[in-house]
Design a protein that fits this description.
71 residues; 2 strands; two-stranded antiparallel ribbon; 30% strand; alpha+beta
């Protein structure tokens, strides 16, 4: 099991005011098999999937923030 997290802070550029602060998390898994190559490859794929999940979550969080704060 791989667990990844990313802290997201959106700040106003002119004064540094925090507009949004959040934490995204992703958990993925992979199979450990007899072949070292297959296990390393599966782990790398799990890492890529976790990063993709984090990116999608951050994108949704920011889209929601901007949708709610259309001033």
């Amino acid at each position: 099991v791989l667990e990844r997290q990313a802290k997201v802070t959106l700040r106003r550029i002119n004064n540094g005011q925090v507009l949004y602060d959040g934490l995204s998390r992703a958990t993925t898994s992979y199979n450990v098999v007899n072949s070292d190559f297959a296990t390393v490859s599966a782990e790398a794929d799990a890492r890529r999937r976790a990063i993709r999940v984090l990116g999608d979550d951050i994108k949704l969080r920011l889209a929601s923030y901007f949708n709610q704060n259309r001033n």
